[in-house]
Amino acid sequence: MQKKFKKYYGNQWLVAIVLGVLVPFGAQLLNVSGLNKVIWLYLVVNSSYMLYLGYITRKNGLFPLVLLIMPVFFTLISTFWLRLVSHQYGFYFGLLYIVLSLFTFLGDTRDDPDENMIPVEGGFHGLTEAGDEKYAVPVDGGFQS
Questions:
Q1: Which UniProt keywords apply (predicted)?
Q2: Could you tell me which of 22, 44, 41 has the C-alpha nearest to residue 100?
Q3: Domains of the chain: which residue ranges?
C-alpha cells in the first residue's frame, strides 16, 4: 500500500486536498475574516507550499504535472464548485500558485545532476594545438564603412 501511495504521489494529493479544499472549508466554518483568509491562508501558506512543491518536484525528479494538483483543487473545487472562495480572487490565486511553482521548478538549477556531465565522448579538448597558426581578427569585423 505504501509503495502505491508513493508511486501515485499520495503525499501531494493529500496536501492538495488539505490546502485546496479543507483549509478554505475550515476557514469558513471558523468564521475567519476575509482579509485574514486571503493574506495568511491563501497568500502565505498556500504560496509557500507551492514554492516548496516546485523545488521538491525538480530535486526529486517528480512528474511535472504534480504542480497542477493543488491549484486545480483550489480553483475548481473550492472556488467554482463549493463556492468557498470568492470568484473575484479564487481563479487568480490558482494561476498565482502555478506561476510560483514554475518559478522554483524552472529556476535555480545549481543542484541539477546533469550540469557537470561531459556531453562528448572522450571529454573536452583544447581549442589550440601545438603548431596552430594564430590569426588576427580585426576589431571592426573586417567591414569598412
A1: Membrane, Transmembrane, Transmembrane helix
A2: 44
A3: 2-106
Amino acid at 88: Q
Mean pLDDT in consecutive groups of 10 residues from the start of the chain, 145 residues:
80 92 94 93 95 91 92 92 90 95 84 60 59 60 58
How far apart CA 20 and CA 132 sit, in angstroms, is: 65
Distance separating alpha carbons of residues 63 and 75, to the nearest angstrom: 21
N-to-C CA span, the chain = 75
The answer to whether 16 touches 69, Cβ cutoff 8 Å, is yes
C-alpha cell belonging to residue 135: 590569426
Helix ranges (H only) for the chain are 2-7, 10-17, 23-29, 34-36, 46-60, 69-72, 87-106
Cβ 40 vs Cβ 24: under 8 Å: no
Q: What is the pTM of this model?
A: 0.71
Residue 54: what pLDDT?
93
The CA distance from 40 to 49, in Å, is: 12
